[in-house]
Amino acid sequence: MSETDIALELPAMRVSYEQSALDESQLAATWQAQLQHWLDEARNAGLPEPNAMVLATSDPSGRPSSRTVLCKGIDERGVVFFTNYTSSKSHDLLATRYACATFPWFAMQRQAHVRGTVEKVSPAETAAYWASRPRGSQLGAWASPQSRAVTSRGTLESALANVERQFADSERVPVPPHWGGWRIRPQTVEFWQGRQDRMHDRLVFELAADDWRIRRLAP
Ligand SMILES: Cc1cc2nc3c(=O)[nH]c(=O)nc-3n(C[C@H](O)[C@H](O)[C@H](O)COP(=O)(O)O)c2cc1C
């Protein structure tokens, strides 16, 4: 199929969503229990990267960016991911302190959005997760000036070789000062289940005056 053919076919590409439904009566008592439940179902269904989420940030002038990160923690405080603190996304987060993340579980005709303020996780939490990462990923985090322009692939590979030499005699690679976790503290968490005729289910946990309420949105 050529590029032109696919472009012509785009208007007709659609799927009827009939796999499942989401009713108020089925919803878990808390947003985090519901999110864990859907993550668990996505993992059990064999979806690739079930904990991947598309993280949206905005720069101080309101220009948005998005990219995929891996969710590495969920509890009543929020949703955690790890990254480089000098990356573009971290610059946005430091400036605006706000983010949105979408879990796109297309194979299950589902998505969930988490939106709220952000904070850095504690150094102890970062250290605990860092220790679980393979050594190669740890060295990569030292070698990569994430989001900055590099002259070539070779530049990156020689940066990695330098870091390998630097830590050759160390059993443990320390956490780089420029690396760690962010937590999104949700103010809203939406669970979206595709339904027939585009009459989808959208149930939202909303934080209002220290209490969570649940609302249904029109699809
Ligand atoms: C499936 C997947 C998972 C990813 N997970 C992460 C992650 O957990 N942390 C991270 O910093 N980048 C991750 N990335 C790379 C980011 O999407 C992005 O390229 C990088 O963080 C730089 O983004 P920025 O320049 O907007 O800051 C992942 C990419 C993919 C496709």
Task: Give the structure's gist in a few sentences.
With about 220 residues, the chain is of the alpha+beta class. It is built from six helices and nine strands, in the order H-H-E-E-E-E-H-E-E-H-H-H-E-E-E. The mean pLDDT is about 95.
Bound molecules: flavin mononucleotide
Return Rg in Å.
20 Å
Helix content: 25-40%
The DSSP helix count reads 6
Give me the count of strands: 9
Look at the helices and sheets and give the structural class.
Answer: alpha+beta
Outline the low-pLDDT stretches: none
Mean pLDDT: 97
Largest sheet: 9 strands, antiparallel
Order of helices and strands: HHEEEEHEEHHHEEE
Distance between the termini: 34 Å
Strand content: 25-35%
Shape estimate: globular
Question: What features would you describe in this structure?
Answer:
- The chain is α+β, with helices and mostly antiparallel strands.
- It is 29% helix and 33% strand.
- The protein is built from six helices and nine strands; from the N terminus they run H-H-E-E-E-E-H-E-E-H-H-H-E-E-E.
- Strands 1, 2, 3, 4, 5, 6, 7, 8 and 9 form a nine-stranded antiparallel β-sheet that branches.
- A hairpin with a 4-residue loop joins strand 5 and strand 6.
- Helix 5 packs across helix 6 (153-166).
- The longest helix is centred in the first third of the chain and has 14 residues, at 31-44.
- The chain is globular and about 60 Å long.
- It starts with a helix and ends with a strand.
- The structure holds flavin mononucleotide.
- Flavin mononucleotide binds next to strand 2, strand 4 and helix 3.
- The site of flavin mononucleotide has 16 residues, from strand 2, strand 4 and helix 3.
